[in-house]
Amino acid sequence: MATLSNPLLTPTTSGTATPTIERKPSGSYGAPSRNPVSLRLYKVLSTNFEDESTKQALRTLSDLYSTSPSKGNDYSAYALNNDIEEEVTGHEQTFSTDSSIAQPSLPNLTESLPGEVASRARKNLRRDMENQLAEGSRRFLAALSEVDSRLGELQTHVAVMRASCDEAETQLALTNESSKMLLERAGHLRDERQEVEDKKSIINLFLSRFTLNAAEVEALTSRDVSVGPRFFEAMDRTEKIREDCRVLMAGEDGSTKAGLEIMASTASNLEQGYEKILRYCSNEFRQIGRESQIEVGLILQEAVVRLRKRPELLNEAFTSLSESRQATLMSSFLAALTRGGPSGYPRPIELHAHDPMRYVGDMLAWVHQAIAAEREFLESLFGMKSDMRMVGSIRKFEKGEEEEWVRDLMDSAVGKLCVPLKVRVQQTIRSQESSIVSYKIANLLQFYLITMYRTIGENALLCKTLKEITDMSYKVFYESIEMHSQLLERAPLDPDNPSLTPPAVVLDHVHILREIMVVYQSSLAGDEHEDDITAGFNQVLDIMVDPVVTLCIAIGEQKQKVRPRWDGGVYVINCLCYLQGVLSTFDFTVKKREQIQTTIDYRVTQLTQDHTINITRDAGLLQVLETIEKNENKEPLSRVPATQTASLQRSLRQFSLWLSGIEVVHSPRLAQLAVQKLHTKIHQDALVRLSKAYRTICDEVKKPENKYEAASTLLGSERPFGQMHLLQQIFGFDESDDEESESSDDDSSSDE
Amino acid sequence: MVLNNFEADATELLETYDFLMKFIVIGEAGTGKSCLLHHFTHNSFKDHSQHTIGVEFSSRTVKLGEKRIKLQLWDTAGQERFRSVTRSYYRGAAGAILVYDITSRDSFANLSRWLADARALASPNLVVVLVGNKSDREEDREVEWADASRWAAENDVHFLEASSLSGENVEAPFLLAARAILLSIESGTLDPEKAGSGVSYGDRALRRVNSSSRLSFGSFTASRRKGSVKLKVKKWIPGSKCC
């Protein structure tokens, strides 16, 4: 539009042309206004131009003719003189303002003559207007043509644009077409990606579930992570994974590659873990082993529990444990033996080596206590609930794996002690001179052997050693008592000793026996069976008692030969009774006592017979009696020299004298018997036999075939006058005794 | 499952201890040594018990203040015939529970012999607690409390009466002895480091601390533990007749 308006305002031609065009209409107006027109003029003048549109029109008009403002003032001064001029001035003013841009074209007109413009304007108003209009139209045209050409141009542009738009559209369509595939593909890809993501998360889950993370692997394999909760958690995880994996592989798909790989890798991790536990355990064990008092940490306990799944590793760990325990126990045992406690208190055990019981007892007690501590340690190691049993009381050997381990470990830990213990005990046993002490030691060993059987089982090495040394100690003891017995046999006969009491050598021997029996008695726990008790001591009795019996009998016989007046029978009975008396205070000697009693009984019978013969002889009836018994020819006794009336009477007188003597109630020979009861019994028995003999004599005398004259006178001449009851009164027999004597009569007759 | 218990029940599960002490239980036959011990370890009366044969062993962990103490208890036979065997077990005992029967004057009369034996054979710092057992049988009493108390004072041993039937004061003698030993450890007269003292450190960590610097351990316990031990002591034998 700027371009279009420009031509209108350009002052080149139009500036000069405008006044000329305007002069014509004003000239033509001016001519008729003088007269007829004056009316009209007045009319016009009378008309009111005060309305706004008129004013506007006038102003526009005046602008058309206006010049510069200073010249405008001149025009107005001039116009004031004329009535009409006011109108023109107004026109010019409006015009000048309107064409102020066209100023350069007007000065020429205005400068030359003031008011000329107005007049010319009055003349040429119409033409000017028309020119103006034409000019304006031309300018419009020009401008429009310009617009037109531009529009044309624009149209071309638009056409081009459109063409390219079309092209673009086609291309768009094409692109669209082709991008559809892309989109499709992208969609597929997206789906795929989603799928892959899903798979990934599944795999991640799978992996996190079926593989160990770095920390766990580190815990399992690295040496930097110590065995502890974290490690155990990792172990648990590994185990869990393997378990799950096994479940998976057991499914219908069978074993998958992944499964196998997982199994393989976890297996290796697990093995490393176990290796680590092994290292840890071995290390701990080695450390624990060095301490005398031991306790088990929770981690170690757990480690052992875990290692149980790998028995071969566990065994390896146990090996190091038992090795170190062996060494420790050994050194503390040796320390207790030789060094004792701190500053020598408690005293070293070996200090009491001179007191064999204490020495051996202390050693065994030490071992026993070490076992108790060891047992507690092992129980806590395996987390076994203690059965609250007291050590020493009978243990039931349960069939548990732990129980077995405990036993094995105990066995090996304590087993090393066997050698020093054995050496010392054996030395002690061998150096004993007293068989009593030997026996005490043997019993002590036996006691501990039983205690150990109950505590650590019969198959333990220590028990075997104990058994060995117990056996040996018994052997030594038996040897020593056998030697005693042999010494007994070699004891010199002492023919000049008139004593009928047991000889000193027997007394000593029996004294030892008594001591040994006391020891045995005290070794009994009180819950043994009676037969066992008896059996347990038989060997000792056989060894110690039998030679005494043999010896006494032998001495009796030998000495009798050397000294006929010495009373061997009484001596033997005295010895045996003494022995029997000693044995009888101990219940477990019952069998041996029975044996001895038989011997005594036999000896007593012998003595009784001997004594009967003696007193019969003393009483003077022996010869008569023998003659009666020997009289087999049935020759009348009164014809036999020994029983002739005179000699018979002599015999009867002697009997009568004897009856009033002291020997009837007291036999000086039997007084030598240590046991008063035996004395009485033998004497009584002898008297019974004597009375029986007297009766035989009476009966024989009374028999008519023996042809004694005045038989009753013969018998009645001396006490007891042939009356048995009188004799029995003298002997102090009761009626009942009489019957007994008769029955014993029968016995003796049957014996004969 | 084991792991779950791992930390939570650690103290319950494991019998960790600060000290291990060896005790012997001695006295005439039939005074109830085994029953007393049984009640202490099993918390129940042992009926129809027979004479102990030789020596029996049991153990229990007790808590004294903040210390856990494991007691190794050797129950000995009172019968004369086992004397030679049981004497070997006195060796290195830190504490002795000397038991008599309040209903048997004889069991009281022989105490001196037992005490002399124990003093001669056990650890030099042996702590002895005299226990008059069967205190539930008041009607058969033959030994007056005052007599026993006087004897205990004269012989410098602790004394109390207990009943292994009713369980009265059954724990007290053991705790009393343990406490006395603990005090002598802290005062320095007893050194658990030395073998034969009848006492040894339990917890290995503690031992390690100790072996590296004994002084620091001493002051550490003296300042921190001593008071608490004393405090607890009053709590655990309420109404006990100990002097």
Please supply descriptive tags for the structure shown above.
heterodimer; A: 752 residues; 4 domains; 28 helices; disordered N terminus; disordered C terminus; B: 243 residues; alpha/beta; Rossmann fold; 7-stranded mixed beta sheet; 10 helices; globular
Explain how this protein is built.
The complex is a heterodimer of chains A (752) and B (243). With 752 residues, chain A is an all-alpha fold. Chain A folds into 4 domains: 154 residues, no CATH class; 168 residues, no CATH class; 87 residues; 133 residues, no CATH class. Chain A is built from 28 helices and no strands. Chain B has a domain of 170 residues: 3-Layer(aba) Sandwich (Rossmann fold), CATH 3.40.50. In chain B, strands 1, 2, 3, 4, 5, 6 and 7 form a 7-stranded mixed beta sheet that branches. In chain B, helix 9 packs across helix 10. The relative contact order of chain B is 0.17. The interface between A and B is large, with 50 and 49 residues.
